[in-house]
Amino acid sequence: MRFVMVGAGGVGGLVGGLLQRAGEEVAFLCRGRQLAALREKGLAVESPRGTFHLPRVEASDDPAALAPADVVLVAVKGWQVAEIAPRLAPLLRPGGFAVPLENGVESAGHLAAALGEERVAGGLCFLLSRIEEPGRIVHAGESLKVTVGERRGPTGSPRLEALCAVLRAAKVDAVIAPDIDAATWEKFLFIEPFGAVGAVTRAPLGVLRRGRESRELLVAAMEEVASLARARGARLAGGAVARALEAIDRMQEGATASMQRDLVAGRPSELFDQTGAVVRLAREAGLPVPVHAFLWAALSPQEEAARRAAGLPAAP
Hints:
This protein is an alpha/beta fold and 316 residues long. The chain has two domains: 2-178, NAD(P)-binding Rossmann-like Domain (Rossmann fold), CATH 3.40.50.720; 182-309, Orthogonal Bundle (N-(1-d-carboxylethyl)-l-norvaline Dehydrogenase, domain 2), CATH 1.10.1040.10. The protein has helices at residues 10-21, 32-41, 78-84, 107-115, 158-169, 180-201, 205-210, 212-231, 240-250, 258-265, 275-285, 290-309, and strands at residues 2-6, 25-29, 43-46, 52-54, 58-60, 69-74, 92-100, 122-133, 136-149, 173-176. Strands 5-2-1-6-7 form a five-stranded parallel β-sheet. Strands 3, 4, 8, 9 and 10 form a five-stranded mixed β-sheet that branches.
């Protein structure tokens, strides 16, 4: 099976590296310093699933140079998906498909609009991984799970069963969700409040979850996302907020979400595609989200400043 990883950061670099180590054919679509490092010295991965170095990896900033692919795993920042989606069509061989692994709830829709509904499956991942330096990925903790699911039609899916079998052989925990929309929203109600409340408090997870006021803010933000999911028709199971808090309490003391790290460092983040999406979608649904209105008001000026500094246009 030939994979193209769109993005070679914490998610794409880790999952793609594990797939290549397991003998799969993998190419990376990336740019900048990461592309230069992959071409010059290959890819190094440090993970509880194995520490290894791939001296030669296939990498390019041109999608056409990497075609054709059986599976395209999209692992860029949420705000980059709509931009890059139309460029991915030449990557897919007949019968090939794309799977988003972003943190938001809109990436699969962006891909389907550009590639066609039948060429996109839903997906999400649970892991803490980052670029330690160009060409070197560090995976923290034991969690490394990819969940996929068909967006339309029956839940049984030979193509996703084949994908999951390959991922498991590469030491990536992979499952098929019977309702990928609900699974995506359940992950979102964990990761978005974690990132947004972490960013506004500037605190690592251990501090955030111990403080009475900060924990209450986190819970309130999760409850707003759960209410929004149900208002938009997601069949979110009962106890979703409690399960998210259990996951929060199991994580490492020093854990931070990528959105928090980007905002604190003054880099463009996924704020508009996570917290901004909650505010926008809630407005469309006529649902009040006062906690997210506060988080948005507090964090959006920093995001706008980071975009200006990076020479990027303001987010829509």
